[in-house]
Amino acid sequence: MPITARAILDSPQTQTATDRLARLFDAHHERLFRLARRLSSDREEARDLVQEAFLRAARSPKAVPEGAQPEEAWLVRTLVNLCRDRFRRLGVRSRAASEIRREERSVSSHPEEAAVARATVTAALARLSPRRRAVVVLHELEGVAVREVARLLGVAEVTVRWHLLAARRDLASLLLKEDSKS
Amino acid sequence: MNADQHPEPSDRLRQALRQGDPAAHEPGLTADEVHTIRRAVLTAAPEPRRQTAWFPLVATGAAALLALALAVAFGPWHRPQAPKSPVQMAAVPTPVAAPLVPPVMTPQPVKSSRPARRHSVRATQAPEALPKPPNDSPILMASLPVREIQFSTPGGTRVIWELSPKDSR
């Protein structure tokens, strides 16, 4: 039987790779979008981040480790790295102050309390570096234990604790001050 | 005041964060968004396919090269060299030799190649008498053919044997 390109494309190995990618997407896209939404400023950016993370998995499937937990950790790390790349590229840190002002202006036009809180938290999180923001989101918002956060991000537990300490200090100066004002 | 009214700052912070959680009250990805992203991801997968697509080309090229090499090595135009005989011999009759006439030797003074001023030329000695010619008649000897046997060794040495009737006796 002659070897044709069609036969190679339909080979079980290729099918397995595609199937694995589909399973990876189906298993993790919801959780990854939630994390991306908490790490990004809006929904569109979160969707782009999720797509880019899965595209990286598609381009280098051998880089994705086997197993549910390792592949989840790989996707989370990829997402955080994408946030960091975007953070560096767009100079978000320098734009944080203007973003906060913009959020405050938009908040003033939406007097709902929930919207105010959401905008305030989003603006406060935007001031943190991507990795520190990821630590805060995973631990404080998603309730992931410190050890698990360290595993997901591929860092030491002491690093996670150090990021948490610094982030709480920064966020407290923003959020608790807002609380005391309100 | 109890602990419930004045929670720890970390608890208050967590509470403030959760109240303003951006993803708490938002729906996840819609079905259309999921479908779009999924399709984009799965169509980006042919990266490994492209890696394997060159395999038939490489296999065909390798087979062609192998066939060419075999044709060059064992093709019809290939003639194996006949093994060289270790000794090539030839018996060639040589032309009739000229009559052996001994040349008339006149005594010559011995010349020195060294400069004369450094060494004086000594008195020359008379040359020894030439050997007498054999008793056989030279004319008779010349009338008989001389045969040569030539052969060359694989190393290139050429050996020539001259068989003269005089030696055969």
DSSP, total strands of chain B? 3
Specify the structural class of chain A: mainly alpha
Measure the end-to-end span of chain A. Answer: 77 Å
> Gap between N and C termini of chain B, in Å?
150 Å
So what's the overall shape of chain B? rod-shaped
Number of strands of chain A: 0
In terms of quaternary structure, the protein is heterodimer
**Helical proportion of chain B, percent range:** 25-40%
Overall pLDDT score of chain B: 71
Main sheet strand line-up of chain B: 1-2-3
What global shape of chain A is seen? globular
Helical fraction of chain A equals over 70%
Q: State the major sheet of chain A.
A: none
* Range of strand content of chain A: under 5%
Tally of alpha and pi helices of chain B: 6
Q: SS-based structural class of chain B?
A: alpha+beta
| Helix/strand order of chain B | HHHHEHEEH
Element-by-element helix/strand order of chain A:
HHHHHHHHH
Question: How large, in whole angstroms, is the Cα Rg of chain B?
Answer: 55 Å
Q: Which residue ranges of chain A are poorly predicted, with pLDDT under 50 across at least 5 consecutive positions?
A: 5-10
User: Which residue ranges of chain B are poorly predicted, with pLDDT under 50 across at least 5 consecutive positions?
Assistant: none
